[in-house]
Amino acid sequence: MINDLNLNSMAYFEAVARLGQVAKAAAELGVSPSAVSQQVRAIEQQFGVKLFRREGRRLILTMDGERLYRAATQAFHALRDARATILRQREQRQLILRVSPSFGQIWLAPRLSQFLTQHDGWDTRIDATTDLSDFQTEAVDFDLRYGAGDWSGLYVEPILEDHVLPLCSPAYRDWLRGLSADPLEQISRARLIDNVKGQHPWDLWMTERDIARPSGSTRTGLDRSQMSLQLARDGMGLAMDSVTLAHDDLKAGRLVPLDARLGTVRFPAYWLVCPPRHTNRRVVRLFFDWIRDEAAGFQKQAASLMQDLGLKAQARLDDGAFSE
């Protein structure tokens, strides 16, 4: 029966037949000579024939051994060819990545057409999810992750800094200014919109400035920047969110900083993440090169926009302090 064949044993037999010595076959396979001899004996017992005869220090194939060797060689060549074809097709034609949902929809999606046009022969799959890839068990080339960059054992490259600040609709800002000229007093009277999975939520922002959370403030927590920005556009509160994701809204005036004097908090936020070996794939290298260029161009646009809005950035340090 074909399911009685042990491919591992056949690989040992093929190596001995090709090299003529058990010791050489063992060295090539990275096992002990006794393990090789045991596997060859198992095949001889299964087939009920002798596969080798000894001439001096070399093992010579018998007629039955020669017949099996030819069949094994053809089979292994076919398997190697199939494997090479599969890997070559995957290398040339398929790219699978995961991306943080809001970043994927707001920032990445509008830019993808250029990349896909340049590489229209590839199959591309993009999963927008907060789930991080398990590269040991999942067929994913890389992640575009939002976070702190602390993923040990993986290739991790920052591609975009983020700038976080209090922002809202122009009408909501004007309403708050009608209540007080003090931006901290305005915050105490506002509905706070929080991105609960963000790296810099309201509580952290207030703690870093020694501001107590207002006892009478109300808060809405959302797990997507896309939703928090929409709520802010609708005039429903004051969002602590991202210049990267709110860029077009800020440029068009749909959203505005609460007060330019509050500045922004700057920190690395978006990362390319994958096992180091994945960076050897041509399609991965090409995507990385493309997105580095896109990110560099966007950083210049964001810096220009913040200058126009009168915003100064402070870099968040590891100890929670700031630098200009």
From TrEMBL:
<feature type="domain" description="HTH lysR-type">
    <location>
        <begin position="5"/>
        <end position="62"/>
    </location>
</feature>
<dbReference type="GO" id="GO:0003700">
    <property type="term" value="F:DNA-binding transcription factor activity"/>
</dbReference>
<keyword id="KW-0804">Transcription</keyword>
<dbReference type="InterPro" id="IPR005119">
    <property type="entry name" value="LysR_subst-bd"/>
</dbReference>
<dbReference type="Pfam" id="PF00126">
    <property type="entry name" value="HTH_1"/>
</dbReference>
<dbReference type="Pfam" id="PF03466">
    <property type="entry name" value="LysR_substrate"/>
</dbReference>
<dbReference type="GO" id="GO:0043565">
    <property type="term" value="F:sequence-specific DNA binding"/>
</dbReference>
<dbReference type="InterPro" id="IPR036390">
    <property type="entry name" value="WH_DNA-bd_sf"/>
</dbReference>
<dbReference type="GO" id="GO:0006351">
    <property type="term" value="P:DNA-templated transcription"/>
</dbReference>
<protein>
    <submittedName>
        <fullName>Transcriptional regulator</fullName>
    </submittedName>
</protein>
<dbReference type="InterPro" id="IPR036388">
    <property type="entry name" value="WH-like_DNA-bd_sf"/>
</dbReference>
<keyword id="KW-0805">Transcription regulation</keyword>
<comment type="similarity">
    <text>Belongs to the LysR transcriptional regulatory family.</text>
</comment>
<keyword id="KW-0238">DNA-binding</keyword>
<dbReference type="InterPro" id="IPR000847">
    <property type="entry name" value="LysR_HTH_N"/>
</dbReference>
<dbReference type="InterPro" id="IPR058163">
    <property type="entry name" value="LysR-type_TF_proteobact-type"/>
</dbReference>
